[in-house]
Structures are given as C-alpha cells and as structure tokens.
Amino acid sequence: MSDAATPAPPHAPPRHPMLARQVRRHLAPGGQGAADGLLANPAVLRFLDAVDAAYRDADREGVVLSHSLETMSAELLARQAQLRRSAEAYRLLFERNPMPMLVHAPDTLALLAANDAAVAHYGWRREELLAMTLAELHAGATTADAHAAREAGAEGRAYTAEWHYRSRAGEPRCAELTGHGITWEGAPARLVLAVDVTERRGMEARLRQQAFHDGLTGLANRALFTDRVEHALARGGRAAPPTVLFLDLDGFKRVNDSLGHAAGDELLRQVAGRLVATLRGGDTVARLGGDEFAVLLDPVTPEGAADEVAGRVLAALGVPITVAGREVRVGGSVGIATHRPGATAGDLLRDADAAMYAAKAGGRGRAARFDPEMHRRAVERLELEADLRHAAARGELRVAYQPVCDLATGAVRGVEALARWEHPRHGAVPPSRFVPLAEETGLIEDVGRWVLGQACADLAAWRATLGDRAPGYVAVNVSGRQLDAAGFVDDVRGVLAATGLPGHALTLEITESVIMRDADAVLGRLRALKALGVLLAIDDFGTGYSSLSYLQQFPVDVLKIDKSFVDHVAVGGGGAVLVRTIVALGESLRLRLVAEGIEHPEQRNALRALGCGTGQGFLLGRPGPAPDLARRLAEGAPA
Predict the structure, then answer these.
(1) Which of helix, strand or coil describes residue 209?
(2) Beta-bridge partner residues of 621
(3) What is the separation of C-alpha 491 from the centre of its chain, rounded to a whole number of angstroms?
(4) 371-406 residue pLDDT tens
C-alpha cells in the first residue's frame, strides 16, 4: 500500500489539537489546505503521536520529580527541626544536670562550658571557670594526670581519673572525672562528668585506719605491724636484717585495777606518745593489745644499735606519768629479736615475745636478746598452759597444807592451803611457775575453785576424825580474777554448804593490791563474803600502797606480816620497828596477826616479844600433803 492514506473526514477533529495548531501556524503562508493535507498524512500523524507520547511522559516524570523534591524538602525540614530540638534538649540536659559537667578542648584542656552544678560544686563563677584549663581547676592533679587526659582526647577514647583539688574556699576535695568525646558547637570536644568522691574516700580512709590502727592509741595494730615486718623480710639483702622489739609494761595492771580502766587507757595513750617521741621516723610502733607494744626498727639501723634503742625506751618509761591526777610509775620489759634465716614475720615476733618474758623473769625493767633456749622455754610454757587446763580433771592438782601455829605453845591454830601440780612428764611444777601462768591465762579461776573445794573438804574430814585436834580454820588464797568473777560468792556459799563447814572455819587471803583496787566494787564483794561468816585476811601486808583510812572500812579480820619484814625482825633496827608498828596497828583495829616466813628461833622469839601471837614458816612446819598433817595433828606434836 501507498503511505497515502484516506484523507481524514473534513469535519473530524484533529488527533492532536495542540500540535495541529502549531503546524497550521507555521504553515499558514501555504494555505489552510496545505496544513490540512499535511495533518492528514499518516507519517505525520505517527510523528505527532510520538511527540505527544513524549510530552505525556515528560509531564508524568515532572510530576514525580516535583513530588520527590517536595518530599525531600519536607523530610529535610523535619530533620532540621529534630536536630534543633535535640540540640536544645542536649543543652538543657547539660545545663540542668544535677551532676557537675564540664566541656573542654581535647588538646589544651581549656574549659569551653560548665553547667550550673559544676559552677556550684567548684565554687568559681562561670566566667572564672571558663578562663581555666581542666588541670588548673584541679590544681592537685599531677602532670601525668593531665598528659593522660590529653592523650585520651587525641585518641578519641574515654578516660577515667581521680583528681584532687581545693574548692575556691580552700576545702580539699577529690573528684572522679570521666571524659567522653563529643562535638561542641561544631568542633571536637570532651564532655567530663565530675563525681565528688571526697566523702567516700574519707570513709575508706577511716575504715583503713580502723582496720590497721589501734583505736585507743592511733598506733599501728598487729595486722599492719605484721605486714610491715613481712615487707621488711621481702627486701632481703637490700637492707639490714629486720629487728623487732617487744615491749610489755610492768605495773600496768596495778594502775588499771586501782585507778580504773579510764586511767589505764590514758596511761596507754601516754606510753604510746612517749614511744613515738623516743623512736625515729623510720621505725614502726604498734600496740599489739593490752599493755603490749612492738617496734620494727628502721632497716638502716646499724647492727647492734637495737640495745641502745631498747635502753632509750626503758629510760622514757622510767619517767613518772601523771594519770587521773596522780603520779604513777610504770616500767617495761623489752625483748629483742633479729631475723634469722628461714624465719617468718610470725617467728620474729614470737622470738621477741620470748625474749621479753626472759627480760621480765630476770627482774623487770630490763632488755634481753632472743636466743634459741628462750624459744624452747616459750614452747614449754605453751604446753604447760594446755596441760594446766586439764590438770584438775586428770587428778594432777594437789593441796599442800602449812600449819599456822601459836608462837608461844607451838599448837596448830589453822592451816594455809597451797596449790601443787604434779605434772606427768615434768614432775612437781613449782607454784612460782604455774600460778603466774594461771593468772595470765585466766585459769586461776578453775584452779582456785578446785583448791577451795578440796581444802574445805579436807578440813571437814579432819574435823570429823580428829575432833578438837583439827585445825580451827583453813586459809585459801584468792586472786584478783577470782574475786572479780560474778559467781565467786556463790562458789564459796556452795562449798560451805557441801562440806558443812561454818563460815568462820574458812579464811580467804587476799593480797593488798587486790584489796585496794576499785575499792567500792571490792568492798561490796567482801561484805557479801562476810555475810557468809567467812574471815578475811590481807596477805603480804605492808608491801603494797594501801591507805590506812581504807583499811578501817574493809571488813578485815587478819593481817599477815610479810616475810620481808620477818627476815629482819631479829636484828633490831628498822625491821623490828616496822613489825612493831604493824602489830600496834593490828591491835588498835582488833585484827589477828600472822607472821609469814619464820625460819629461825630468833625470829619467832622476836615476833612473840613484839606481841605477834601466831605465825607460819619452815621453822614451824613445812607445807605437806593432807595425810602428813593429819598424822601430826593426831599425835598432837608441837612445832
């Protein structure tokens, strides 16, 4: 077919009106007919169709593009609004945060911003804060602290550090700083949260103080002292071998008992002060407990200088101390131990302790150096303590009786019960050895209770078998610990009831120092004992420091004249004068007198001439077991 198509009907509307108009306008010079003919040509129509389709596609894409641009513009505006809201919220969160917050430059640490909490916390005005660097604000920070903060900022990582500083008012504070990277006003910066840890660190310091220091004196305690010794041992050859002094006060118990615990505490505080003042800055002084102190000498101490240090310590303690308005004297005994190969901190302290006991046994107020023999004796002492706990149950305790005789006739008026210990391995352990051990360990209560029961039981047996020849009474020694025990009066009451003895058949001997301590409490106990009918004697009278005014108040029945006076009574002079004075005192107070330690006839005769009616001692009869005394009583043999 030819491209010439059937002409469009003369009245048919053009297929593309807009394009048709354009064609007619451009072809107008050629006439209407030329235009209509062209518009009727199929090829032209196909072209016009293609152009029309292109226009329609372009319109659709424009609409889509316009819609996309509108959508993107809306999203961008929303995003901008959200960022503005976020920035405002962030600024409000920063400014109103109750925790102090700072912003600083990563490199120079210059402060860029500070919230209200930071202004209030540090005490500086905001403009003053913003004129500082982070390091200047925390003037206590070290150069290393500042360098670490800059380095963290340069690397863009978080950091935490504890910096000390002073507030504007000069108050020392401590802050824990935590820094994070942020963008501040379009530039990299660091946001710092400052947490005040002053109170927490103060509490931790107080807890450390309590954990490692003695609450009474402020000195190091046993835990800290042991730690220091261990560190000294760890230094090994880098310093001199560690040397430890172990100090025990002499006479502290006497002060504590007589003047009260408050005075005892004050005495310990003053002793601690003297030790610190006497020793050098590098020495560690500790209170181990009670009246025991220890000193770790500075590692630069020359070898052999420990004896000189111990001498200074003893000299300082020799100066009287005023406590509770009274001047008191307390000495000390010092043990010295230097580290030996293989010894631990515990070994070193134990060696010094053993040396201290050796010094005390040598006469008090002395210093002694440790030697292995001391350790052997210390171990033996521990073993004795363990054995003494079971001695009564194992039947190892005995009671020996020494007669108290009429000095004129030699007749036995009474007996004193004396504790004895027959150890299965060591044989007879002397009272001078186990009685102090019992006192120190508190075992004296058990031992004393057993002796009291046995003595009363033996006297009851003698009274049943010997009748009038039986002793009139049995005297039993009472320690301060026994008298302090809440159940002691009940123990005495129970023993009297169990044995059927009348109260006056039992005499309780109490030393002068025990009588004079805490007078009100002791007086109450003595009156309770007197209510049982028990007789009370002051043992070793004249060797203590009692007041005669108190002696009138105590319900005492007997004064025992100490052997130290009896030793010199026969030679005249001062010894005889003192005994005469005690006898006169006893007569004026209507007290019975018993002289102790009579060993020679001349002493007996002198005492009798001075008016002392009864006594005891080797001349009159040595202590012996109950059966021996029973035989003597049955025979009626005089001294």
Answers:
(1) helix
(2) none
(3) 37
(4) 888 778 778 888 888 999 998 888 999 999 999 999
